[in-house]
Write a structure and sequence with these properties.
The protein is α+β, with helices and mostly antiparallel strands and 164 residues long. Among the domains are: 70 residues; 38 residues, no CATH class. 29% of the residues lie in helices and 12% in strands. It has a three-stranded antiparallel beta sheet, with no helix packed on it. Strands 4-5 form a two-stranded antiparallel ribbon. α3 packs across α4.
């Protein structure tokens, strides 16, 4: 059976159920107060909707709150397809291909791919700070003295290179 035949990649309710099982193996947790006690299921109102039952909180939430899927109008099953395609391809996937494969606009595909890539930036994948943290930088100033007449309209090149 192909992974693309799995129900959580095609059905919104199945996608919510799958993500809830992954993120909340011991039951729902309120992202606002962290309570695991009383949580009311309001799935009849909206798919995956829950309400915290703790008196000071009493806020509504879904499994999307606190994740990269929050504040997005893209259906959750489309997000899971994009996650699978981005992780399964050896060289990654660009926004154009995501746009063609998922059948969403290019703007939506760009938004999704950038959120997914930003979420994957941890540890060694995160770019180092400029200059490698507290390391010294060697500045290379180059101006062409021999071609000064021809380069009067051009700017001098200044670069920074990390010493290693």
């Amino acid at each position: 059976m192909s992974i693309f035949n799995r129900p959580y990649l095609h059905d919104e309710e199945a996608a919510f159920t799958e993500l809830e099982a992954l993120l909340w193996p011991n039951g729902p947790v309120c992202p606002h107060c962290g309570s695991t006690g009383k949580v009311y299921d309001l799935s009849k109102t909206r798919i995956g909707l829950k309400k915290c039952g703790v008196k000071p909180c009493r806020k509504q939430f879904t499994v999307r709150v606190g994740t990269i899927f929050e504040d997005s109008h893209v259906p959750l099953h489309m997000w899971l397809q994009a996650v699978h395609m981005l992780c399964a391809s050896m060289m990654g996937i660009n926004s154009r291909q995501l746009h063609r494969t998922l059948g969403v606009t290019y703007k939506t595909a760009w938004f999704m791919s950038h959120r997914l890539r930003e979420a994957m930036r941890t540890g060694s994948l995160a770019p180092p700070p400029m200059g490698g943290g507290s390391q010294f930088l060697e500045v290379d100033k180059r101006t062409s003295a021999t071609r000064k007449a021809r380069t009067s309209a051009r700017l001098a090149v200044r670069g920074a290179k990390s010493k290693r």
